[in-house]
Amino acid sequence: MPGIMTPTEHEMDLALAAELQAALLPKGCPETCEHQRTGIRNRMCRSVGGDFYDFIELNPDQMAIVIGDVVGHGVRAALLMAQIMGFLRSDTQDRSRPANMVGALNEMLIALGDETDTILSCSLLYTVLDLPTGMGFMINAGHPPPIVCERDRCASHGLGGSDLVLGVEPYEPHEICHTFLPGERLVLYTDGLVDATNEAEKTFGDQRLLEVISACSDADPQPTADTVMDAVAAFRGDAPQRDDETIVVIDRC
């Protein structure tokens, strides 16, 4: 019947949607970013999903580093993820001011939720990094805190402080300042990694993540990202993947 999609057509549509979503996500840091090396892995639990990340060149000396996680899975999450990425890349806001950018995105999600009579929310970590100095201004809207590794001591610690997730209620985001020194490693990830569950219903957890990252202190960013994702998959075993999983590893040169 006209207008009714066959299973094959549905699969083809999902495959195309997955290709389009993958095209939205950068393969790495822009080539002009000479002070950073990156490694990235992303694994959706369905054909498409709500995890996202981005590197946005603001000017020759500044870059916005973004990672986020739309609440939910599948096509709905993917559509909202694409809309959020488009908003963050647009020039309608002052992207160099994290509080302004994140506040405006929060207002947009609340307004869109009011129009659709639903809550459209996401967690977000938005960092504006000064490339020559390594000084970063960060806003954490309900996202897992980043891990900073001092590679010479192989010590890892999280940058604390978190606001509410976006899209729920208006608030004024607050900034965290941290200077990333040469030799430091910044690890960004979504909660799908630490919440990964095995057949015994045990979670991968923060401690295992820190242990795997610490063991990779001498490895380059991409092998580190690969090792973490492989460790999560091995821990999960035959249990189903229940959430999208993303990791971004950034080394300051």
UniProtKB/TrEMBL annotation:
Record domain PPM-type phosphatase: where: 34-252
Fetch the Gene3D superfamilies from UniProt.
PPM-type phosphatase domain (3.60.40.10)
UniProtKB keywords: Hydrolase
Molecular-function annotations in GO: phosphatase activity
The UniProt entry, under InterPro entries, shows: Bact_Sigma-Reg (IPR052016), PPM-type-like_dom_sf (IPR036457), PPM-type_phosphatase-like_dom (IPR001932)
Q: Which residues form a coiled coil?
A: none
Task: Indicate the secretion signal residues.
Answer: none
Recorded protein name is PPM-type phosphatase domain-containing protein
Q: Does the keyword Manganese apply?
A: no
